[in-house]
Design a protein that fits this description.
single chain; globular; about 160 residues; alpha+beta; Alpha-Beta Plaits; two-stranded antiparallel sheet
Length: about 160
């Protein structure tokens, strides 16, 4: 069964540990600019969202690639770029509707989450559970359970309810 990264933005505190471990795993440096996961701060209230390649079912990046360098790894399900074929045009970066594809500022090459060959470091090290690696068929169940818990919590918080 294929697995996917599940993001819980409400759990992210912006510690950037995921970025550091990702860049270390891929480039042997602790540099967020070289990470395949990026923490995006949304506003002054410091809402943080871990952004990664969504591993789309019908990936726009793959369609936009004029050299055919982008393909799905059949073992992990991750979209990958063959650096021997990539011409560096960055059309995939422009095509991604989620900003999940970037460019390594030192090498100038396209980077996106490759799921660390099925062992995503970001999910392993996130101390707050903002990034988890789950079986694809369980992704919806996780979100449903979370939504149900929020609903129950809101009912209990209403005056005259719960106790």
């Amino acid at each position: 069964m294929a697995k996917t990264l599940l993001i819980y933005p409400e759990k992210c505190l912006g510690c950037r540990i995921c970025e550091m471990f990702c860049s270390l795993a891929h480039t042997d440096t602790c540099n967020p600019a070289r990470s395949r996961v990026n923490i995006v701060k949304m506003d002054l209230d410091v809402h943080c969202v871990p952004m990664v390649c969504q591993q789309c079912t019908d990936p726009a990046c793959e369609k936009a690639c004029p050299s055919g360098a982008i393909h799905r790894n059949e073992t992990t399900g991750a979209m990958e770029t063959d650096r021997n074929i990539c011409i560096g045009c960055r059309m995939c970066v422009l095509a991604c509707p989620f900003g999940g594809t970037g460019v390594d500022p030192w090498e100038g090459t396209v980077i996106r989450c490759d799921l660390c060959q099925g062992e995503p470091k970001c999910a392993q090290v996130c101390p707050y559970g903002a990034i988890v690696y789950v079986e694809e068929d369980r992704q919806g169940l996780h979100k449903k359970r979370e939504g149900a818990q929020k609903f129950l919590t809101s009912l209990e918080a209403q005056p005259g309810k719960g106790s």
